[in-house]
Fold this protein.
Amino acid sequence: MNTVLEDMRDGVREDGISRAGEILRSGGLVAFPTETVYGLGANALDAGASARIYRAKGRPSDNPLIVHIAEWDAIKAITGDLPPQEKLLSDAFWPGPLTMVLKKAEAVPYATTGGLDTVAVRMPDNVIARSLILAGGGYIAAPSANTSGRPSPTTAQHVAEDMDGVIDMIIDGGPVSIGLESTIVDLTEDIPVILRPGYISREMLQQVVGPVEMDRGLSADDPSVHPKAPGMKYRHYAPKAPLFIVEGDRERVQEKINELTAAEYGAGKQAGVIATDESLGCYAHALVRSIGSRDRELTIAQHLYAILREFDLLEVSVIYSESFETPQMGTAIMNRLMKAAGHQVIFV
Ligand code: AMP
Ligand code: MG
């Protein structure tokens, strides 16, 4: 299949959007930018179109898709009775990086919800995404536009690495602004539960709706506690080389990483190090990359997936990373990094 590339780095182009909308309405696949990561879009109300997403990504069929809308009124046709928290949260955070899990209406096929009676809904903020959703019929299922298991794409080039020749169109809107997938909150129980941490933190949600819990499966290293979001149980974001997070006092972490990279160098191999702007000069015997600045946590979120992909291309033998418990997004950043590392942590 020939994958068409639409360049919208300078802004929305109506001719391109209408071609993309046409593809979506006839059951095809279009990758597009959102503020979180690039999404792989299909008509969410068309079971055949959703099935194509699973095939293109190699995604397990029990891992449900998020339905993206562009106008609040659209929610009524795809959900059952709405709990009061829904309005409070959508007023506060939509359009934006928050996904809500709600009871589904019949219009949403089980092919989209992975067989569940609930549906995940988000209204993105990115203008290309919003125009495309409207042009495509108003309901666009869109998981991250990567091959299942690989780091999520934060640029159109990342999408092309995984999806060129596999999907109908890629819209290039430049690098995304947040870089991590949306916060997912389940509103089907009395107390809202965070199923996946993101830019919108637990504290931000609590200021709007009162108590909010974290899904127990998120923090558990105990594999018998299953995460409630079906997708969270799969290994994700994994680079090709083994990745270790080194945790502890800042100086001890640097010493330990230098010791490890020196050993690798001595064995004729080259390690990769995920450092920050502040620590970039502190490492030797390795390919060292800065993920961003500890003073600007958004820069760390923005570059996490790109750095994992870069180390794949550089073919390092092993990757050592500092840890990043930053104030607002630290939970989300460490959730993704821990998954990428397969929970391998070296404590110093
Ligand atoms: P992705 O679109 O690749 O970021 O993945 C979507 C995430 O949303 C996955 O982790 C899914 O498990 C989760 N999700 C989607 N729909 C539901 C739902 N109805 N209930 C719980 N989790 C969901
Ligand atoms: Mg994904």
